[in-house]
Amino acid sequence: MLELSQIRANLDEATTEASCLAVCRAAAKRLLGLPEADIARIELHRKSVDARKKHDVHFVLSARIGLDKHLNEQDVLSRIPAEQRKNLRIVDDDAPAFPASAAHVRAGATQPVVVGAGCAGLFAALTLAHAGLKPLLIERGDDAARRTETIERFMRTRTLDPESNIQFGLGGAGTFSDGKLNTGTKNPAHRLILQTMVEAGAPREILWDAKPHVGSDILPAVVTHIVDEIRAHGGEVRFRCRMIDIERAADGSPRALSVEQGGKTERIATSQVILACGHSARDVFELLRRRGFALERKTFAMGVRIEHLQADIDRAQYGRAAGHPALGAAPYKLVAHLPNNRNLFTFCMCPGGEVVAAASEAGGVVVNGASLYARAGRNANAALLVNVNPADLPGTDPLAGIELQRACERRAFELGGGDYHAPAQLVGDFIARRASTTGGRIKPTYALGVTWTSLDETLPAHIIDTLRAGIPALGRRLRGYDNPEAVLTGVETRSSSPVTVVRDRACAAIGAPGLYPCGEGAGYAGGIMSAATDGIRCAEALISDLQTIS
């Protein structure tokens, strides 16, 4: 198969998949010098926006081209002058797939258990199910429908369910967020993950969009369909089922899990566990420390959410093309390297989205960002984060980062005035070191309400100092980013795990063969795609171990 890249398309001629394919087909015919009949098939592979020149915003496309079977791709390529084929190459046409049924599984092997139904756990369980291993997937929170109900109840009554919320439940923290699927890594599993999500109901354009997203209105149905597929392949899925203990054999391997469901405790014998508990499962990390698993501190990040008018971001990014229906709401990704040797960076940017209440513990305020598929809200929001390094933490406790997160969340709750109001401050007031007393033209979207105050006491000094120095620097990179009326809402503490559950190159926990720490919570992923990829990787490691153990 041939891949043709760097195909230019104007905003009006590449609005749909069909119109993009028409542009790509015309470009392929011109370059290859072939008649229409010799191009057997063509697929849109990638679509991105080039907005480097604000007076010339356009799309850049790439396509995969299958030639008629009587043609040899190398011969066709060799007939094109070298200077004209720099954007044309031969690529592998193999379709990604889950593993076939595992062969030669050792006698007496126990049912593998996957703990956590976030992206890592879902794709781990799906991989095991396709391999015929009939996994048990347990999730402490609810399925998507009931989880939606508990979140809506929290919005109405401010009564937090610590087991089913923005953090816990089917799909994990990613379900009720923007559902961004872009990643900075490359892996053959990415295409398989995207195809699986499309088959489960995600929009088809995630297969080629350079910055794909699903939307928190579509994701609940997508993850529900994936659960249905796990069950269809013989897997078992239990909700409101929380792991409360791990028994270890003499060699450190897991021997059984204790779980709590419906007020009853059950012992599940198993020697194969994929631990995909998510970055907010603080009780699980405490359990692991108690049971002697190898834990280490890792760098994580904390900060605030910043909100601007989406129309202002659109103009800053797209110039006079802002508002074109083919472009939609503009995203951004920014970083500032500062003289204090710290970096301020944006994360989980939600175009046309809202700031959401993401607490999972009573008496703490946590914010995150979300947007629907249409991204049609009036505001843009993103996390503004600063790293917390292991050296920034006191003592030697591997869970010191969790305690820092918790302290910041409780302080935010207090400053908000209790009742899950979030503390907020205008950028102009924050830079000037004065508390805010009222908002401006940019209205906060945090649904439980904000309390205007100073954010200085919510986060460690090095984070506040870096935010104060970094926001003007980001304003020099994106016009208007340091708008004095932009809104800062605190605190964003759950962007990543502060703990690593140490594992070896075969994905098994150190000193615990048969237990596979997996995904964001264990410290091996940083988003939906990387978490799902790690889930597949850990499942493949488990399958390999079962096939090689005699």
Q: What is the helical fraction, as a range of percent?
A: 25-40%
Number of helices: 12
In CATH, the architecture of the largest domain is 3-Layer(bba) Sandwich
> How much beta, percentage-wise?
15-25%
Strand order of the largest sheet: 14-15-18-13-21-19-20
Question: How many strand units?
Answer: 23
Instruction: Name the poorly predicted regions.
Output: none
Mean pLDDT: 95
- Tell me the structural class: alpha+beta
CATH superfamily of the largest domain: FAD/NAD(P)-binding domain
Q: Total domains, how many?
A: 3
| Main sheet characteristics | 7 strands, mixed
Question: What separation lies between the terminal Cα atoms?
Answer: 42 Å
Name of the CATH first level of the largest domain = Alpha Beta
Question: How much is the radius of gyration in Å?
Answer: 25 Å
Shape descriptor: globular
Reported by name, the CATH topology of the largest domain is FAD/NAD(P)-binding domain
